[in-house]
Design brief:
This protein has 772 residues and is α/β, with parallel strands linked by helices. The protein folds into 5 domains: 165 residues, Up-down Bundle (Four Helix Bundle (Hemerythrin (Met), subunit A)), CATH 1.20.120.160; 108 residues; 160 residues, Histidine kinase-like ATPase, C-terminal domain (Heat Shock Protein 90, 2-Layer Sandwich); 134 residues, CheA-289, Domain 4 (OB fold (Dihydrolipoamide Acetyltransferase, E2P), Beta Barrel); 138 residues, Response regulator (Rossmann fold, 3-Layer(aba) Sandwich). The strands form 6 sheets. A 6-stranded mixed beta sheet has the order 12-16-17-15-14-13. A hairpin with a 3-residue loop joins strand 8 and strand 9. Helix 3 packs parallel to helix 5, helix 9 packs parallel to helix 10 and helix 10 runs antiparallel to helix 15. It is flat and about 120 Å long. The chain starts with 8 loop residues before the first helix and ends in a 5-residue tail after the last helix.
């Protein structure tokens, strides 16, 4: 348990205030929805009493007065002399917000000042609430004070900088990092505050302990080998004894005694070794079990329930819905699902963005919902669960959905695509526009949305922790955002396979299935091989070919070992040499000096100390897609081309949009150029290193490695630094253009250049006509 002696009294009060105001906010919202109970009232009484005492200790008299006013209301309710009703919620929440704000204020101890004036108004407001007969208060009305304060009192509860945002309950500071408040209404809940850095080290040690325990079976195998050798020694001595008995006179008693002694000693050693092996086998089993339990407990201690990160969301939904004139309820499921604290600390902002978007963009006004045959109260669902070693969080609203054609029109209006490209974009590709920086479907910017920064931030956070985000919609019915995140990033369960004579690890969470298939089951269509499994055709690829290794001789291998992987709807079967079994691997990042290793994201050590590379499945799928869609010259064809007196100039097109890639390829080929394609910056860099190109045409925003990063790699390479590069981007801002040119790009064009001669003319200006 962490030593709190190094915290000042004011810091401890802040801890107390954030904890208790979280409990109070949750309870008041429950009262507002008529879900209150005597236990809730009792919980609020204790919370306000604790806050009042803590504020008195640190000398915050303004906080003492407001906390006392709240306590009076809850005490009266507990004594049945007063009924707390939904119409009282605004006044109660204003007082709670004041307590949360003053606890965080730097000037709170500098005298009453403006804090005292705000406290006086709030205390008067609470007194008026308590004095007003409950039967005379109409739903939705708020009692007013004798000074005439009404709606403005809620604004006086917080500092001006806090007015535009709901009070967050994730502000408790522990060892310099945010930590969570206890679960509301549960007196048995205990919170142990542990330094996040200490936990990180503990998780690392537990992972190493798990790896060390996995080395013991190897030692046990060595002991078994030794026992076998000892048994052979005993057999040899017995044989020697028999030979000597036949060749030595019967009166050679000394030799016979010696041989008998050797035999007895060897037998005793063998018996003792067998016993020790049995004991050691028991130690191995217990050690593995203990290490597994230790690791599980350490991970559990690092986990926090999702509820700790979303306590402010009911208040967020309430406040934003009221400001928009909508009726919305938040339905949370799986709020006790465990989440790694580092991931949870980053989740609040992205989930808040998604909920705000659902409130503003998705949920309709009550009258429009009635016309559509929907209940007047909209629903935003937030659900979390563990599945196959990943954390899945979905945010769903039953609103109007996303208008796909409006997205297409919006992209055209912002000149992100030409009409020709827009007409060919699929629904999935159009939905990807939502994640572009600055893209919004709203024409009016409000305090809630319209700036186009929310979904971009969501995607950055999710990808930053190795996850993914998808969006699906049913126009007129619902929109669903699905976030897939790792549960923990310290140890993974992986499948080891043999590729090119070396072990590689595939995280189990990224494997669809493993299977074996015989040569007779493989069919070939247009030069590609497939195998049917459960009514689905799976394309087969040699894993060694994707990873740039010498392909094995598979003709004699029957059946073949296949690992089935997928990403963003693409599914492939990787043919590997053999399955080597499952392992728990401690994830170790690659040394930064290695740079980015294609298709690999980390490494680990096996039980025998040998290194193993952990495959990046998303990157691998991109590489496979690039191999299948790109028309690349082999080394032999390149050599032949070099001997020709004239040759076609070759251009590499790098873009993660299949439609844009194909459009650029067709434009350039129609003009006479030879064109290869790559699906992202990393695939483009790898392709460039394996071929000879006269020009690179690249997008900017791409997964794994963006266009700016790829250009930087090219210009830093002494062999390829002189290859001209043209950046073609959706972005048409001066700062983006300067950023691209600063890293070494020769030209920066927008994708609107496709419909005129600008794009082709730029290419000819840089490298001349298609042939020498």
């Amino acid at each position: 348990m962490e030593d709190l002696s190094r915290f000042s009294m004011l810091e401890l009060f802040r801890l107390e205030a954030d904890t208790q105001t979280a409990i109070l906010s949750t309870a008041v919202l429950a009262i507002e929805t008529l879900e209150h109970s005597p236990a809730a009232i009792d919980s609020m009484m204790r919370a306000t009493h604790s806050l009042k005492g803590a504020a008195r200790i640190v000398g915050l008299e303004s906080a003492v007065r407001v906390a006392h006013g709240l306590e009076e209301v809850f005490v009266a309710a507990g004594q049945k002399g007063f009924t707390v009703r939904p119409e009282h919620a605004d006044a109660l929440l204003a007082a709670i917000d004041f307590l949360a704000s003053i606890a965080r204020a730097e000037d709170a101890l500098a005298g009453d000042g403006p804090w005292g004036a705000r406290a006086d108004l709030l205390v008067a407001r609470l007194a008026a609430v308590l004095a007003a007969p409950s039967d005379r208060a109409s739903p939705g009305s708020l009692p007013t004070t004798q000074t005439g304060a009404s709606a403005d009192v809620a604004q006086l509860a917080a500092e001006p900088s806090d007015l535009a945002k709901p009070i967050s309950t994730e502000q408790v500071t522990v060892a310099g990092r945010p930590a969570a408040a206890p679960q509301a209404f549960d007196p048995t809940d205990r919170v142990v505050r542990v330094s996040a850095d200490s936990l990180t080290r503990l998780v690392g040690l537990a992972g190493e302990s798990l790896v060390e325990a996995q080395q013991l079976p190897g030692v046990l195998a060595g002991l078994h080998t030794l026992r076998g050798a000892q048994a052979k020694l005993a057999d040899t001595i017995t044989t020697l004894e028999d030979r000597l008995r036949r060749g030595v006179p019967q009166d050679s008693a000394a030799e016979a005694t010696l041989l008998a002694s050797l035999r007895d000693q060897a037998g005793a050693v063998l018996a003792g070794l067998s016993l020790r092996c049995e004991e050691f086998a028991g130690i191995v089993r217990r050690n593995e079990e203990l290490s597994s339990r230790l690791h599980h407990e350490v991970l559990c201690s690092r986990m926090r329930p999702l509820a700790d990160g979303i306590r402010g969301f009911p208040r967020l939904v309430r406040d934003v819905a009221r400001s928009l004139g909508k009726q919305v309820r938040l339905d949370v499921r799986g709020d006790q699902t465990g989440v790694d604290r580092d991931i949870l600390d980053k989740l609040e902002a992205p989930l808040s963005h998604l909920i705000r978007n659902a409130l503003d963009h998705g949920i309709e006004q009550p009258d429009r919902r009635a016309v559509a045959g929907k209940p007047p109260v909209g629903t935003i669902g937030l659900e979390a669960h563990h599945r196959a070693g990943t954390l899945t969080i979905t945010v769903t609203d039953d609103g109007r959905g996303i208008d796909i054609e409006q997205l297409r029109t919006r992209a055209l209006a912002r000149e992100l695509v030409t009409s020709r490209v827009a007409s060919q974009l699929s629904e999935r590709e159009l939905l990807e526009f939502l994640f572009l920086p600055g893209f919004s479907t709203k024409d009016v910017v409000t305090e809630i949305s319209g700036r186009g920064v929310g979904l971009d931030a969501v995607q950055r956070m999710v990808k930053g922790v190795g996850g993914s985000v998808r969006v699906a919609t049913q126009p007129g019915r619902q929109t669903v955002f699905t976030l897939q995140l790792p549960i923990t990033m310290s140890v993974i369960r992986a499948l080891l396979v043999d590729i090119g004579g070396e072990p590689y690890a595939f995280p189990l969470t990224r494997i669809d299935q493993i299977m074996v298939c015989r040569h007779a089951d493989i069919r070939t269509v247009e030069g590609r091989q497939y195998v049917d499994r459960d009514g689905v055709s799976i394309g087969l690829i040699l894993a060694a070919q994707i990873l740039g290794l010498d392909p094995p001789t598979t003709a004699a291998t029957d059946p073949l070992s296949v690992v089935v992987i997928s990403d963003h709807g693409q599914r492939f079967g990787l043919i590997v040499a053999a399955f080597l079994g499952e392992r728990d691997l401690e994830v170790r990042p690659l040394d930064p000096r290695l740079g980015t290793v294609p298709d690999i994201n980390s490494a680990s050590l096996l039980e025998n100390g040998d290194p193993v590379l952990i495959v990046d499945v998303e990157s691998l799928v991109h590489s496979i897609d690039g191999l299948l869609t790109g028309r690349r010259l082999t080394q032999v064809e390149c050599a032949r081309a070099a001997k020709r007196p004239s040759r076609r100039k070759r251009i590499l097109v790098v873009d993660d949009s299949m439609t844009v890639r194909e459009l650029e390829r067709q434009l350039l080929q129609a003009h006479g150029f030879a064109v290869d394609v790559a699906v992202d910056g990393m695939d483009g860099w790898n392709t460039l290193r394996g071929g000879q190109y006269d020009l690179i045409v690249s997008d900017v925003d791409m997964p794994r490695l963006d266009g700016i990063g790829m250009v930087a790699l090219i210009k830093a390479d002494p062999v390829r630094k002189d290859i001209p590069v043209v950046i073609v981007s959706y972005k048409d801002r001066e700062e983006d253009r300067l950023r691209g040119l600063e890293v070494g790009a020769n030209r920066y064009l927008t994708k609107t250049s496709f419909h005129d001669e600008t794009f082709l003319q730029t290419v000819v200006d840089l490298i001349g006509e298609p042939t020498d």
